[in-house]
Design goal:
Layout: E1 54-55, H1 59-62, E2 80-87, E3 91-92, E4 95-96, H2 102-120, H3 124-128, E5 132-137, H4 141-145, E6 150-160, E7 163-164, H5 178-184, E8 186-188, E9 199-201, E10 208-215, H6 224-229, H7 232-242, E11 252-254, H8 258-262, E12 267-273
Antiparallel strand pairs: 1-2, 2-6, 3-4, 5-6, 6-7, 8-9, 8-10, 10-12, 11-12
Pfam families: Septum_form
Protein name: Septum formation family protein
Keywords: Signal
Length: about 280
């Protein structure tokens, strides 16, 4: 706090032309304090998101690194559900990392999918064959400068290319139910490998259905020939089991590209027509 004093100087006044001079009484010295400046206080960090809230996000908003949408009632139409709010470990080796540092983004990319599996229930196979995914958000740079250090994990369902499917009710244990696996299951708009093929949620219009996954060897990408050959027998068997006539049936196989492998899809997918 700073205080400034101001001294008022007085002048000695001469009276007439007399040879005697009587000094006028000096004006009293006064001091005037400048207004006290209020101490500067940093704005408090913005409130962290709340677990269990729902949001009506577009696809573009869902894949953005930060979220600006407000909550909506979970009973209203919504496309995302916040299922975990955590804390980012921003101090590494005594150094404060920026909120958009690669290390923190990798941390979010690992934590949210793991927690999504706990939320959805079902087996690993059933989760792989669903269109439910996790997305995550961190504070903006401005929010982090004010002390925000939260991580928000949301669950969304991909309806099709750059489109989200409205969520129907709570997602806790949804893949433990037949209705949940049917609504959020992975289906296709055409035979895999053809020009009209796109992955869509089974709740939307479709003509093919994903039946099972085919595990591939751990490690580096095995190459297209190995990945393709791995699906021949299991997909034939899956297509036959799903057909009305075991002697007259179709099946399809979708194996991962090197890019998909690097992104975490280390398995192939068997398909069959879904009348």
């Amino acid at each position: 706090m700073r205080r400034t004093a101001v001294l008022l100087l007085t002048a000695v006044l001469a009276a007439g032309c007399s040879t005697t001079r009587t000094p006028a009484p000096p004006a009293p010295s006064t001091s005037s304090a400048a207004p006290t400046e209020a101490p500067t206080r940093a704005a408090p960090p913005p409130a962290a998101p709340r677990d269990g809230t729902c949001h009506d996000l577009t696809y573009t908003e869902a894949v953005a690194p930060t979220a600006r949408s407000s909550d909506v009632a979970c009973g209203d139409e919504h496309t995302s559900q916040t299922f975990h709010v955590g804390t980012l470990d921003r101090v590494v080796g005594g150094r404060l990392l920026a909120v958009d540092a690669r290390r923190l983004q990798d941390e979010a990319a690992a934590e949210c999918p793991d927690r999504l599996a706990e939320l959805l229930g079902g087996t690993e196979e059933q989760r792989r064959l669903s269109m439910l995914r996790s997305v995550w958000f961190t504070p903006t740079v401005g929010q982090s400068d004010r002390g925000a250090d939260w991580l928000r994990c949301d669950a969304v369902a991909v309806a099709g290319p750059e489109t989200l499917l409205p969520l129907a009710g709570p997602l806790g244990g949804v893949l433990d139910t037949e209705a949940g696996r049917e609504r959020y299951g992975m289906c296709g708009t055409a035979e895999p490998g053809t020009g009209g093929f796109e992955r869509v949620a089974c709740a939307t219009r479709h003509s093919w259905r994903a039946l099972r996954t085919v595990g591939l060897p751990d490690g580096d990408y095995p190459g297209q020939e190995v990945a393709q050959a791995a699906g021949e027998t299991p997909c034939t068997d899956a297509g036959r089991a799903a057909a009305d006539d075991p002697l007259d049936f179709q099946w399809g196989y979708e194996w991962p590209t090197a890019e998909q492998w690097a992104a975490g899809q280390t398995y192939g997918i068997c398909w069959a027509p879904d009348a």
